[in-house]
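Ticket #167: bound-state structure for FE2/S2 (inorganic) cluster.
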Amino acid sequence: MAKLNVNGKVREFEAEPDTPLLWVLREQIGLTGTKYGCGVAQCGACTVHIDGVATRTCVRPVSSVSPNEKVVTIEGLSPNGSHPVQKAWAKLDVPQCGYCQSGMIMAVTALLKAKPNPSDADINAAITNICRCGTYNRIRAAIKVVVAGGNTKSAQLAIQHADGSTT
Ligand code: FES
Ligand code: FES
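RESOLUTION: The complex was predicted; output attached.
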């Protein structure tokens, strides 16, 4: 039996070494919050953290993840949906169909841990996940709500463009 550390627990599983981590998480361990979208590392629906780094699991062979590395999925972000990013998502009603949102939230939490006050350029560079429902503006607004401590009134919701203009 191979082992992974997922959401703070050691989990055992059986899978071929080249099985993507995504399928071990979903089918062996039963954590179905992490989604399959494209399968080629383009959409970000399958994003989890490995030692705090946002990682697209559809192309990550499970054998390349050591049991000493800490895997965190959307289910492990908080016990009750109380992570500040989850609260901002709820406050602004970010999801539409919701399919991409686990991956979005994992990508955003990794960004905010590395850069607590990201610029729009930082957000553009780090959050390349695809949302077919087009919730991008609400995602950006929710990131700014988190940066403002959860206060929708004081959050800087305007988007600053490269030419200095805002919308
Ligand atoms: S399913 Fe992994 S990036 Fe799309
Ligand atoms: S909310 Fe539907 S794909 Fe993003």
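RESOLUTION NOTES: The pocket of FE2/S2 (inorganic) cluster (ligand 1) is lined by residues 36-39, 41-46, 56, 58 (CB under 6 Å).
TICKET STATUS: resolved
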